[in-house]
Amino acid sequence: MNPISEPIFIAGFPLGSSAGLVAAFEWLGQPYRITRVDMLGEMRTDAYKRLNGRVETPVLITQQSQVVTETMAIALWLEARDTERRISFEPGTPHADRLHQYLAFLNTSFTGAFYPMWVALEAQDATEGERETLRKFGRSFVALRHEQLEAMIGDTDYLLGNKPTLADAVFAGVARWADFHQAIEPRDYPRILALRQRIEADPAFRFALAVEDGKPAIGSGAMKGFVPLEEVIPMQDAACDV
């Protein structure tokens, strides 16, 4: 496979969980590029399925042209390259174990709680009664996971101390879904609300949201440019043929 100059991170919009990992790339500070993908359109094409047959974002293409899918896998890829420990901790330490615990909870239980509400929104053949049942279950699941996360959060500025880590990145990409679905009353979870406000004011996350919205943005300088999806797919097809 032919190497590429920088890893390419494929981020979905609108409201993709990918925004959190864009912030993580910014916090890490190592060179990368971005491909924006419309999840309601181009992500559902046969061409995109050659990149990720499960029709999901995010996706990472490494400098060795390997395709890495799933948020957790990409987060661990970033952790392995965080030699300065900007967004992670020394492997084998209690802090690293705690980071992995948060990542697992956020990427499964917390994120999965929203699934019924997304189904209610996207299921074209569902009746209004079926949609409302899904929304009801979704609200209860989201509330439960917020209660659990609220209990996990300590007195530090971020989930694992006084600087953001990969856990905060994964959290931030998904937490805003509660507003979109009007699933909870944010003030019922003051620690989560304070954490959200802190991360959403961070320049890296503001940059991620601007990228998501297709607006001009100034980041840390680590992001070296955009790569259109129509260039990425043939690039990968060629790599697979080598």
Would you write up a description of this structure?
The protein is α/β, with parallel strands linked by helices and about 240 residues long. Helices cover about 50% and strands about 10% of the residues. Strands 4-3-1-2-5 form a five-stranded mixed sheet, sandwiched between helices. α1 runs parallel beside α3, α1 runs antiparallel to α7 and α4 packs parallel to α7. It starts with 7 loop residues before the first strand and ends with a helix.
Please give the largest β-sheet: 5 strands, mixed
The radius of gyration is 18 Å
The pLDDT mean sits at 95
Largest sheet strand order:
4-3-1-2-5
Q: Please tell me what the overall shape is.
A: globular
- Tell me the number of helical segments per DSSP (H or I, 4 or more residues long): 11
Strand content: 5-15%
Point out poorly predicted stretches.
none
What is the succession of H and E elements?
A: EHEHEEHHHHHHHHEH
Distance between the termini: 6 Å
Helix content: 40-55%
Task: Characterize this entry briefly.
The chain is built from 11 helices and 5 strands; from the N terminus they run βαβαββααααααααβα. It has 242 residues and is of the alpha/beta class.
Give keywords:
242 residues; alpha/beta; 5-stranded mixed β-sheet; 10% strand
